[in-house]
Amino acid sequence: MRALAKEKQAARADRAPTKRARSAGSITNKDVVPFRRALLRWYDLHRRDLPWRKTRDPYPIWLSEIMLQQTRVAAVLEHYRIFLQRFPDLPALAAASEESVLAAWSGLGYYRRARMMHQCARQIAEQHGGLFPENSKTLMTLPGIGRYTAAAIASIAFAEPVAVVDGNVERVLRRVMGANLSAQQTWQHAQTILANSRPGDFNQAMMELGATVCVPRAPRCPECPVRKWCATQGEVPRVKSASRQGKKQIWCVLDLRNLDWQNLDWRNQGQGEVRMVQRPNQVSLMPGMWELPQISEPRRQKLWRTFRHSITNTDYTVHVVQNRSVRRRGAAQAKAVSVSQPQKAARGRWIPIDHVPQLALTGLSRKILKAGGII
């Protein structure tokens, strides 16, 4: 009975014009209700089939929100599936080592997210009995959970009527209102138009609209369910974006030994090794992660592959040389014969190839090792 009463009260709130609607904008008091209905109707028919939308469990919802920060949906899907297989619930994540969490996160980048998520899981386990707080205010006290993530979890998992603002929502509101809004104004407008009866769905609908229709370039305005209330019809006031800081070139070495090069299924050889270096824990960028050794530009060694890679605001051109040894057959013991003269590289450790996938690898090293068939 209480739940039914709450639903009826929320529905009345959605039908009632809000006092905070901005008369100077395109969405007036009388427009708020039809705007909500049109957006939710479109979302029900056209939303993407994403795994985290099939649950109200705060753990996978939280995981998806952390993974989706500064990362495209397509890049997240497989990582999300694998991560949940390895850490299916919050107790499993809280009990895991940081190294195993970083290894599962490897390839997504921005590794501070994984570290903070691990800390957050432990804090929820220790201070909240393993249960997520059910309101955004308390969620914001946890490591790695800011205003947006707290609102997303609280609205989707617990139906708290609190709006979210990410880059997609900001763009939609800027176009609808026909003005560049301050951060405070954006959050205020998002809260004003929120459908209190379905806050989680409405927030996801706003983000979905920005991600699939109201896109940054060439928005698909004829497909937009709220076009009639849009002041700009896709003509966005230009906001200067930060330019990239620069470009760099680096050299790496893929140093391999104890391999039978006639049998290229290296992961099943059981004896092959690759030299890896662990980044110091004191550095600010990817501390404790494993990577291939960097070298100065070689004079004699032949280039194996060149890669393009971006980290934060820097674009890298990465040249890779390959050192390798072979094992001759027929002898009582396999004898390693060098087929190239390795240049002196940074110190590192020889890691068995079958153990490499369990390491917390940097995204660049993972890319190179995949190209070389090591993982």
Strand content: 5-15%
Q: How much helix is in the residues?
A: 25-40%
Using DSSP, what is the number of strands? 9
Q: What is the terminal separation in angstroms?
A: 56 Å
User: Residue-averaged pLDDT, rounded?
Assistant: 82
The number of helices is: 13
Q: Given the helix and strand composition, which structural class is it? A: alpha+beta
For the sheet with most strands, the description reads: 7 strands, mixed
C-alpha Rg, in Å? 26 Å
Shape, per Cα inertia axes: globular
Poorly predicted sequence stretches spanning 5 or more consecutive residues:
1-8, 13-25, 328-346
- Series of H and E elements: HHHHHHHHHHHHEEEEEEEEEH
Task: Please describe the structure with a list of short key phrases separated by commas or semicolons.
two-stranded antiparallel ribbon, 375 residues, single chain, seven-stranded mixed beta sheet, 13 helices, alpha+beta, disordered N terminus
Task: Describe the protein's architecture and organization.
The protein is of the alpha+beta class. The chain has 13 helices and nine strands. The protein has helices at 2-15, 32-46, 58-67, 73-86, 90-95, 98-105, 112-127, 136-139, 147-158, 167-177, 183-193, 199-212, 363-371, and strands at 246-257, 273-278, 290-291, 294-295, 303-311, 314-323, 325-328, 335-338, 349-352. The strands form two sheets. Strands 1, 2, 3, 4, 5, 6 and 9 form a seven-stranded mixed β-sheet that branches. Strands 7-8 form a two-stranded antiparallel sheet. Strand 7 (325-328) and strand 8 form a beta hairpin. Helix 2 crosses helix 12 (199-212). It starts with a helix and ends with a helix.
